[in-house]
Design brief:
By secondary structure, the protein is mostly helical. The chain has one domain: Serine Threonine Protein Phosphatase 5, Tetratricopeptide repeat (Alpha Horseshoe), CATH 1.25.40. A 3-stranded antiparallel sheet has the order 1-2-3. A hairpin with a 4-residue loop joins strand 1 and strand 2.
Length: about 150
């Protein structure tokens, strides 16, 4: 969906910001459009398991990433799914006290940006992941693109 200034936040933008640990950019993108915040098919093990941004940040033990996602309203119960055993973010966080505390927090989580990052330029690299998302939205089918 295009923002008022015409910028379109893509699944690729969100995934790239997460992969690069660019939390200010991720926060800015989600401020513009949070429609794909709970897309639980952005990551895959290639064997049939899938998960989204929150589980990936928990898996990578990225406390600030978890903070951004929770501050922007990520679904704390949305975990991995697929051919293997499903895991909630809380189960994935086992043993990580700071992340577990964020996931269990009864008070709203806050993230304060340290910078105002530039929005990413459109790229042909956006296409495969965004096509995958469009197919999933339309049909419910998911396939790995990377």
């Amino acid at each position: 969906m295009a923002t008022p200034n015409g910028f379109v936040v893509t699944r690729r933008h969100l995934k790239d910001a997460c992969d690069a640990a660019s939390w200010d950019l991720l926060d800015r993108l989600l401020e513009l459009d949070r429609a794909a915040i709970d897309d639980d098919a952005l990551y895959t093990d290639g064997w049939g398991d899938h998960w989204g941004l929150l589980v990936e940040c928990v898996r990578q033990q990225r406390v600030d990433g978890v903070r951004v996602l929770l501050a922007r309203g990520a679904d704390r119960s949305r975990g991995s799914w697929g051919d293997g055993a499903a895991h909630t973010p809380l189960e994935v966080a086992e043993g990580n006290a700071p992340i577990t505390a964020l996931l269990l927090s009864a008070t709203p989580v806050v993230y304060v940006r340290q910078s105002e990052p530039a929005l990413p330029a459109p790229s042909a690299a956006d296409d495969p992941l965004d096509r995958q998302g469009a197919v999933r939205d339309r049909t419910g089918l998911v396939f790995p693109v990377e």
